[in-house]
């Protein structure tokens, strides 16, 4: 969900305006190239036909509570390179009895802008109890839960989990996708570098915890992603970016809809 540090809300409103974010508003003034060109992208399911899609931002079960701008169809898109690497991940986990379940992949800048406008509206708290019950919405920018830019917009980032073919259910990861809190961190209750479960839940503001089994489920996904060319994010167990992403300085603006070649 997040990638690049955002300025304070006041700065955003002054320089960018709540009606839309411009590309020069970043703390390091990173130069990016917005483009509508989708020629180097593919439908994720063309590369991974058995992937299960649950595109949260096309529906209303997400932290905003409504369909997000730019999501015109409930499909997932990735750069061709990221899709190829994700096929290798799929082959890896299938041997273990799992399938990939996708929550989000490429995200147009229009969707990121929608998140920023929502976060600036402190009265819009319809989904608070489900995704950020322990946070006052006013801290979402300050604590970097909402950003003006996202790695998803570069096309090689994916949010996903594992589906157990025997139980016909998602693996229990001990927390929901897009939960705003330390409970979503890969190092919550364990060491993701070693895979060791420690049970240390001291970072949780309410004493929440996850079990050794839930931590191991997170590690199964993490190991498969890292072994096949992706890198993790230290704040979200579900978020991975292709290590050698092909467009590190490009932000795409075309909508999410099935590509027809």
3D architecture notes:
This protein has helices spanning 9-15, 44-47, 80-94, 109-120, 128-131, 212-227, and strands at residues 33-35, 41-43, 52-53, 77-79, 98-104, 157-164, 169-170, 190-191, 196-197, 230-233, 236-242, 250-252. It is α+β, with helices and mostly antiparallel strands. Strands 3, 5, 6, 7, 10 and 11 form a 6-stranded mixed β-sheet that branches. The longest helix has 16 residues, at 212-227. The radius of gyration is 18 Å and the shape is globular. It starts with 8 loop residues before the first helix and ends in a 9-residue tail after the last strand.
Task: Tell me the major beta sheet.
Answer: 6 strands, mixed
SSE ordering? HEEHEEHEHHEEEEHEEE
Distance between the termini: 29 Å
Mean pLDDT: 90
The general outline is globular
Q: What fraction of the residues are assigned to beta strands by DSSP? A: 15-25%
What's a concise summary of this model?
It contains six helices and twelve strands. The chain is α+β, with helices and mostly antiparallel strands.
What layout of secondary structure does this protein have?
Blueprint: H1 9-15, E1 33-35, E2 41-43, H2 44-47, E3 52-53, E4 77-79, H3 80-94, E5 98-104, H4 109-120, H5 128-131, E6 157-164, E7 169-170, E8 190-191, E9 196-197, H6 212-227, E10 230-233, E11 236-242, E12 250-252
Parallel strand pairs: 1-12, 3-5
Antiparallel strand pairs: 2-4, 5-6, 6-7, 6-11, 8-9, 10-11
């Amino acid at each position: 969900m997040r990638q690049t540090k955002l300025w304070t809300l006041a700065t955003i409103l002054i320089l960018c305006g709540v009606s839309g974010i411009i590309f020069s508003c970043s703390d390091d003034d990173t130069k990016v190239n917005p483009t509508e060109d989708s020629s180097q992208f593919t439908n994720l399911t063309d590369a991974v036909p058995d992937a299960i899609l649950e595109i949260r931002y096309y529906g209303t079960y997400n932290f905003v509570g409504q369909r997000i701008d730019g999501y015109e169809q409930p499909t997932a898109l990735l750069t061709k390179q990221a899709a190829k690497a994700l096929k290798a991940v799929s082959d890896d986990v299938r041997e273990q009895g799992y399938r990939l379940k996708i929550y989000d992949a490429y995200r147009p800048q229009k969707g990121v802008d929608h998140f920023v406008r929502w976060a600036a509206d402190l009265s819009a708290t319809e989904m608070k109890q489900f995704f950020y019950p322990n946070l006052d919405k006013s801290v979402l920018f300050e604590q970097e839960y909402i950003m003006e830019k996202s790695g998803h917009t570069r096309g090689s980032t994916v949010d996903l989990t594992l589906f157990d073919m025997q139980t016909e259910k998602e693996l229990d990861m001990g927390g929901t996708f897009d939960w705003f809190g330390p409970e979503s961190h890969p190092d919550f209750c364990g060491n993701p570098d070693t895979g060791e479960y420690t049970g240390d839940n001291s970072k949780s503001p309410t004493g929440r915890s996850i079990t050794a089994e839930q931590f191991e489920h997170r590690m199964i996904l993490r190991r498969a992603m890292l072994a096949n060319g992706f890198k993790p994010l230290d704040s979200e167990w579900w978020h991975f970016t292709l290590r050698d992403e092909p467009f590190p300085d490009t932000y795409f603006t075309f909508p999410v809809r099935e590509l027809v070649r």
